[in-house]
């Protein structure tokens, strides 16, 4: 399949993530980039902009603004041109999906392709059925590559409300986290980098309400933020990045954002029960040093 990778307002983080895919040589045997800003391609950016080169998939990296141009042409005009001929459009990363950190750029009306944070923009309605969103800062390369292979094989992808494949975004980062027992008994971590303790209650970990597969499909096949002792930053979510990333905002001791599917009353009930337990085994690990 022929692929066009179009970079809008971006830091190229998703490109660098993709280049770390361990089987990229095999991928490049199965897919052809008609244009990519880093990988050798058959056409230049000027060729892409001035002509409508046949291709099957349009990948968009970076936030969108009508003011932003590539080769002196609005990036929105380029998207509109190629959206008419491709089978699928894939937003690669949180910026292309929700606007991301570049919502604060100097370009007016900067957003994702279809969404500005959680708000649907009503833009590009004619290509909604063609679009697949892959949020993340950056996207895990296996999520991107496996989605492209699914498109190549005409797999019917089941998508969530933000057009993300449920295969990768129906879970939370909390699923598979090695610190789940500490979470259940409210044993908090006291220092970044430690292997024990939960970082949700005091250190801003957003894993219980962030939809991603980071603890199921490990980065570089070995690790994730929470396994390394760093709080999840919620980089796949519409409102990323939040302020005060490493703090848990609380109201009267209750975290402002509760785990997905857990109401405040349920949380208070479980927290009350948890206080009745004193798990020496878990506490001992933290304070042995």
UniProtKB/TrEMBL annotation:
Binding site for [4Fe-4S] cluster 2: 174, 177, 198, 205
One Gene Ontology cellular component: [Ni-Fe] hydrogenase complex
Cofactor: [4Fe-4S] cluster
Listed InterPro entries: Cytochrome-c3_hydrogenase_C, NADH_UbQ_OxRdtase-like_20kDa, NiFe-Hase_small_C_sf, NiFe_Hase_small_N_sf, NiFe_hydrogenase_ssu
Biological process, per Gene Ontology: anaerobic respiration
Family as reported in the entry's similarity comment: Belongs to the [NiFe]/[NiFeSe] hydrogenase small subunit family.
Protein name, UniProt field: Hydrogenase
Domain Cytochrome-c3 hydrogenase C-terminal: 169-243
GO MF term list: 3 iron, 4 sulfur cluster binding; 4 iron, 4 sulfur cluster binding; electron transfer activity; ferredoxin hydrogenase activity; metal ion binding
Residues binding [3Fe-4S] cluster: 214, 232, 235
Subcellular location field: Cell envelope
